[in-house]
Amino acid sequence: xxxxETAREIDQLETPVAIVDLDVLxxxxxxxxxxxxxHGIANRPHIKTHKIPQIAHMQVEAGAVGIxxxxxxxxxxxxxxxxxxxxxxxxxxxxxxxxRLVSLARRxxxxxxxxxxxxxxxxxxxxxxxxxxxPVLVEFDSGLDRxxxxxxxxxxxxxxxIARLPGxxxxxxxxxxxxxxxxxxVREVRRLLQPAGLDVECVSGxxxxxxxRAHHYPEVTEHRAGMYVxxxxxxxxxxxxxxxxxxxxxxxxxxSRPTGERGVLDAGSKxxxxxxxxxxxxxxxxxxxxxxxxxxxxxHGHVDFSACAQRPQIGERVSLIPxxxxxxxxxxxxxxxxxxxxxxxxxxxxxxxxxx
Amino acid sequence: xxxxETAREIDQLETPVAIVDLDVLxxxxxxxxxxxxxHGIANRPHIKTHKIPQIAHMQVEAGAVGIxxxxxxxxxxxxxxxxxxxxxxxxxxxxxxxxRLVSLARRxxxxxxxxxxxxxxxxxxxxxxxxxxxPVLVEFDSGLDRxxxxxxxxxxxxxxxIARLPGxxxxxxxxxxxxxxxxxxVREVRRLLQPAGLDVECVSGxxxxxxxRAHHYPEVTEHRAGMYVxxxxxxxxxxxxxxxxxxxxxxxxxxSRPTGERGVLDAGSKxxxxxxxxxxxxxxxxxxxxxxxxxxxxxHGHVDFSACAQRPQIGERVSLIPxxxxxxxxxxxxxxxxxxxxxxxxxxxxxxxxxx
Lengths: 356, 356
Prior knowledge:
Two copies of one chain form a homodimer. Chain A has helices at 22-38, 53-61, 72-80, 95-107, 117-129, 152-164, 182-193, 208-211, 233-237, 269-272, 325-329, and strands at residues 17-21, 42-43, 67-68, 85-91, 109-114, 134-139, 168-174, 202-206, 222-224, 248-256, 262-265, 283-285, 292-296, 301-304, 317-322, 334-339, 342-348. Chain A has 356 residues and is an alpha/beta fold. Chain A has two domains: 39-228, Alanine racemase (TIM Barrel), CATH 3.20.20; 233-348, D-serine dehydratase-like domain (Lyase, Ornithine Decarboxylase, Chain A, domain 1, Beta Barrel), CATH 2.40.37.20. The first copy, chain A, is elongated and about 70 Å long. The model of chain A has no long low-confidence stretch (mean pLDDT 97).
């Protein structure tokens, strides 16, 4: 039985523990849904942040058209849990993965992306073998230099290739994150595809910060946001969400006070991840906001309390907002749902470690 | 069933996948054991690197006196798997954890550490309640500014406190990593404890780099090394081990080639972790040693191939040595053991996510 399975109060939870405030989580889910609904943009939340089927169901029940998974294994976990519409914005490559993809496409609604003819050809061979029609979006680079074709001409070329390939249907364009470049890019692809009679049916944008600007990119028809459900210190820093909108916290214990200034928490890089996200320090300690978690070892967080008038005793418990919620959600086997100080549920992070 | 459970050849494994070469693993385990045996130092390997009971048993069968776990939950997993002697060099704090600790101490041989009277008092209350005698080592700081008392006088004070507290036995000193400061520190503590008739029975040093210098610190009676079983790029960089002594590799697939210079792997921060360990780039690609993994997103590794004469095609598989083996071992649910190109075993990483 997981260590914290029988706890009823937050104070009974053994540390380090990841907790999510259910009132805040529900409010976050509802708020983005309302916003995207108001602007006529389909909501397709990215479950990479939480990897928990129960939260995915909450998102769908609130009005999401389906979910986004970054990995095929995540999609398998979510489909097994009853989610019926999944977008995997990833180049799925290799015969075994393609076999699994078509198995999944036989039982639920699946869309994928490609940014190369190589990927498209693999998808086509698999879909054709399974007598399926697989909707494929072309991934384009909106300025982050990650995956994606780089020009509207390349995008249009790949769209025509997809449209020609048996078993595939060209279903639109996808990028991460949504940005000012999306509009001109999409309009140019539309123009280039007109002679072939190809329509850009879906334009899928993404990012939690960009979610609240989604209506400024009128070409975008659906949005993929992940972090907005939990919130994190990076989101607060960039004013994407307020501190009280952060549902995810880590409860940690001060296990050592080697000097008057220094303290050590039982939360290190295997709890918080090493993702700095461009910030100073590895998290915000709510009880000691001036403290700096200046270094992490694997199971210890090293804190400089010198700027704090009050400093903690050994054994004291503190609450942290981590820098990167998506990384923290990936390190715990269980997420503890709390409401007004009481433990309400312990969710297995079912799609965690599903890397293939 | 885990995705790679049925693969028989390395080429059949779906990526990204963590593999460990069993010949190399066995050689690494045997080599450190021989070295420490030769120098009369007890070997107490740290399982934080692998978190796999089967590897812990290999270490014990090779001659280790027991193992080291960094967390109580790890120790519970290892005890359940039949390991009978565990050292937890950690301040164990709080009534629930202390209950679990004494439960564990009832069934196997357990030693712990303290660096404060607070920790020692908690251990004493728990051990006394359970009518046990718990061996406790005093943790001292050998220069890394992490946990541990800072001076021989503090160490001696805490040793006397432990010796006085019911249910506890002062069992020696512990530090990480072993360094030049250990000798003078230990000798001074010995001198200070002589009037009380207290002996420093065990001096536990640690670190994989320091393991091969353990005989230069004659006061050290046992050594805790973790990384030496797997090896990593950090270890190679610091000449702790040769490239061919690295047992752990990640197999990844090139999923995108957005430009002539850039490529994208299906291994990102959720596969490799964000631990840079002071190195440039996030791993060594064996087939393209001049390539630089310059950035990670969660499920993508972004590679600059511009220094490589040959560059990969989309769909090509590559092998990586990660920067930090201990972090990677923590991200996968399964470790695939291979021998001469064949898959021999798939081990669950049973103590992964055991954070409390």
